[in-house]
Amino acid sequence: MKPETKDIERAHELLLDVYGDHPWRPSDPVATLVNTILSQNTNDVNRDVAFEQLRERFPSWEAVRDAAEADVIDAVRPAGLGPTKGPRIQGALRAITEQEGKITLDFLRDMPTEEARRWLTDLPGVGPKTAAIVLCFALGKPAFPVDTHVHRVSRRLGLIPEKASREKAHTLLEDLIPPELYYPLHLNLIAHGRAICHARTPECERCLLRDHCAYYASQ
Fold first, then answer.
1. CATH number at residue 177
2. Which of 81, 112, 138 finishes a domain?
3. Whole-angstrom Cα distance, residue 45 to residue 157?
4. In contact, 5 and 176? CB cutoff 8 Å
5. Secondary structure (DSSP) of 75-89
6. How does pLDDT run across 107-129, given as a tens digit for each residue?
7. Which of 106, 176, 105, 99 is CA-nearest to residue 142?
8. Angle, alpha carbons 53-55-56 (nearest 5°)
């Protein structure tokens, strides 16, 4: 059975009761871009350590862009995959400079969402998830980021097909979820995935969504 908007809204209400609401607050889009690149395949603690170390070592994004690659790799090492993430960050900062003449993404605020998404995904190392996080978190645009927790919980709830890729899930969930719910629902699905809907041993008996869950119904 295809999920309906009312199913999403009910799940959202139930999650709000446990994890609370999350009013949107703007953040710097360049910092959000860098932070999201650092977050790939690591946890929040390691990401934050790497981000702070990067900001402490270099006084500006221009300094990060122009630094020796080895120095940036060393600065972001706590996030893991430094030899990949360091060059990705520098490549993105150089691409922004080449196109805009300076390191800023503020101009994306005035772009239609899909045009801004295409602009971001043209940057080196920026995929659908990273672009959606910048759009949603930093710019307040209607984009729904899909990380591993959102992907897992959405599939188990039956919001998207079991075999839907994470890339395809972005489009499917954006078509299904009311845009005003993108930001809080994204955060609460992550919280629920971490607390209850684990990858290997989901705690279904404790789950407030079990009566709405295709995975639980199939057990």
1. 1.10.1670.10
2. 138
3. 28
4. yes
5. HTGGGS-HHHHHHHH
6. 999 999 999 999 999 998 899 99
7. 176
8. 65
Residues in the chain: 219
DSSP assignment letter at 28? -
Residue 76 scores a pLDDT above 90: yes
Calculate the average pLDDT of the chain: 95
**Whether this model's pTM surpasses 0.90:** yes
Q: Give one word for 207, left, alpha or beta, with left for phi > 0 and alpha for psi -120 to 50.
A: beta
How many helical (H) and strand (E) elements, i.e. helices and strands, does the chain have?
12, 0
CATH number for 36: 1.10.340.30
Strands (E) located in the chain? none
- The residue assigned the tokens 């490549």 is 91
Same domain membership, residue 133 and residue 34: yes
Instruction: Write down the pLDDT at residue 7.
Output: 86
- What pLDDT digit, counting tens, does each position of 1-60 carry? 667 778 899 999 999 999 999 999 989 999 999 999 999 999 999 999 999 999 999 999
